[in-house]
Amino acid sequence: MIEKVKENNKVVIGVEGMETGEWVLVDCGDIICHVMTPSIREYYNLEELWDS
User: Fold this and answer.
1) Domain segments of the chain: what residues?
2) How far apart are CA 50 and CA 41, in angstroms?
3) Which CATH superfamily groups domain 2-50?
4) Are 4 and 18 in contact (CB under 8 A)?
5) What is the pLDDT of residues 28-44, one digit of tens each?
6) CA distance 5 to 28
7) What is the C-alpha to C-alpha distance for residues 12 and 19, in angstroms, rounded to an integer?
8) CA distances from 13 to 2, 5, 25, 30, 39 (A)
9) How many C-beta atoms surround the C-beta of residue 13 within 10 A?
10) What pLDDT, on the 0 to 100 scale, is given for residue 47?
């Protein structure tokens, strides 16, 4: 994903979580992308959180 951002001449300000790879945050300024494994997504139950 980071490579695709850079290929499109956009800036990646910061990346966190690459060490474990379970939940990676990519900060592109106006957009912040969260990439996570299915088990982490299930653990935090994000769909229920945002369904409110």
Assistant:
1) 2-50
2) 13
3) Beta Polymerase, domain 2 (3.30.460.10)
4) no
5) 999 999 999 999 999 99
6) 8
7) 17
8) 10, 11, 11, 10, 27
9) 9
10) 82
